[in-house]
Structure formats: C-alpha cells, structure tokens
Amino acid sequence: MIRIAIQAKGRLSEESLDLLAESGLSIEVSKRKLLTKCGDFPMEVLYLRDDDIPEAVAMGVAHIGIVGHNVVVESEAKVEVLQKLGFSKCRLSLAIPKSQEYSGCSYFNGKRVATSYPNILETYFKENKIDASIQKIAGSVEVTPSVGMADAILDIVSSGGTLVVNGLKEVETLFQSQAVLIANPNLESTNREIVDQLISRFQAVQRSRGMKYLLINLPESKVDEASIIIPGMRSPTILPLAQEGWCSMHVVVEEKGLWPKLEKLKTMGAEGILVLSLDKVLP
Ligand code: ATP
Ligand code: MG
Q: Which residue in 144, 209, 243, 277 has the most C-beta neighbors within 10 A?
C-alpha cells in the first residue's frame, strides 16, 4: 500500500484528482476526510497544504506526492522528482515597478525584494553576485512595491495579468514550473513497483492529451503519399471501402500542427475526415 499526498484545496487539487481518476483510480472524495482510500488500487490519498507536501514525502509520511516544482525546489526537501505532469505551468519571475528602467540584474543591488521563495531568490542573487535584501512574506507579494514595503518582487507568473494590475513589469525569469510527481528516495521495492505502475498510467493519460484519432477516406493510390504526412504510431491502419479504389486510413496524430496536415490531405483527395478525442495512449 502506498500513500500519495496531494493538495487539499487550491490550484493543483482538481487536476491532481482528475489525473488520478483518468488513471483508473476511484477515490472517495469527502471534504472532511484528510485520508481516503482508492477503491481499486493499493493506494491512499492524503490531503495537505501544498507547502507541506515535499517535507511529508521526505519524511516518509507519504511515499509520493503531487506538487508544484517551484514548491519542491524552495523547500530543499530530500525527494526525487519522478515525472513532470504537464499541468499548473507557471514561472517564477522578478518584477519591478513598470516606470523603472531595467538594464540587467545588477539593478537589484541594494534593493528590497519581497517573495514567498526566499531560498530560490537567495541562490539566484548569490550566483549573480547581487547584494540585495530579501523580504520573506507569505502572500499578496505583488502589492508590496505599491505600498512601499519592497522595491521589487519575485513571484509566480502565468499570464502576467496580476503584475500589470499592480503596476509591475517582469524583468527576469528564474524558474519554469509545473506540477511534478515526487517520491521519497528510499522506497521499498514492493512500493516502488506500485509507483512504477502508477507512472505508466500517468504517462498513458498524458500521452493522450494533445493526441487525436484521425479517420480519412482516401483513394488507394494516395496511401503512400498520405503515410508520409500522417505516419501514425507504428504505421497507419488501412481498411478497404465498399467502393472500389478507395480506403479508410486511421492514425493517431498530434493535435499540434494538425490543421495544415488536414488541408494537405484534402488537396490530395481525402474526404470524410473525422478527428476524435483519445482517453489513453499506451506505447
Ligand atoms: P495551499 O493552501 O495549499 O498552501 P497555495 O495558496 O500556496 O495553496 P495555490 O495558489 O493553490 O497555492 O498554487 C499551488 C501551485 O499551483 C503553485 O505552487 C504553483 O506551482 C501553481 N500555480 C500557482 N499560480 C498559478 C497560475 N497562475 N497558473 C498556473 N499554476 C499556478
Ligand atoms: Mg501554499
């Protein structure tokens, strides 16, 4: 039996639960319970504040956890990062009042910088030989320059809208983050096997995101040419149509860049094109 720690409430919790559900793990969701079992997998789920997840995994309170990479690095906890999970993408950036001129990171010499990520910021300042004062605060970092508490901030940015609203501009990106699966580095071999099985399921779900199932009708004479555009996983499936000289071609394709391929296939005589969603893709 393994235990996974996920965020109880916040930006990561819904997508963490969705990933578990799509991986075939049915979890009784009860708002009051802090620990729940999976119906059909040897795993229980522990709900925590995201800041507590790296340490809980390092201590072995949970074997694995889902948390933002930013929080893992800041915590300096002794955990292994097993896999990037592709959601909650954001960056940690330095921002300054938008009226200020910025000519490089020496700007920060002698400045007060507010952040909830003092360890990451300290490392960055050390590496860049900058002498600045770091003000650790737990939240509302982005308002500190306008109220005179700080000259600049290091904070999470995704669209940048919050910075603009607070009269700030992003000047340096220190770290690109996303949700990651972390593990205690000393898992027993039986638990390690369960974790590996879970990772395979996560990968199958992740692989299907951004992939489509494509069906087209095509003159048989065009199959070789079309196979170059849409080679599929191993090779396309070709099924004969009742009408002589025609076939149906089926492939799994990446959604990215699909439109130009569809347009090319159309000019080659493809018709009856269907693009379908996928749930899981196992290699
Ligand atoms: P908790 O109450 O569990 O301590 P929190 O308020 O510290 O939660 P959230 O705001 O829920 O944290 O964010 C959790 C994680 O989601 C962040 O550490 C980061 O990895 C990611 N994240 C934060 N903001 C964004 C955003 N705007 N877009 C995408 N991901 C984000
Ligand atoms: Mg938190």
A: 144
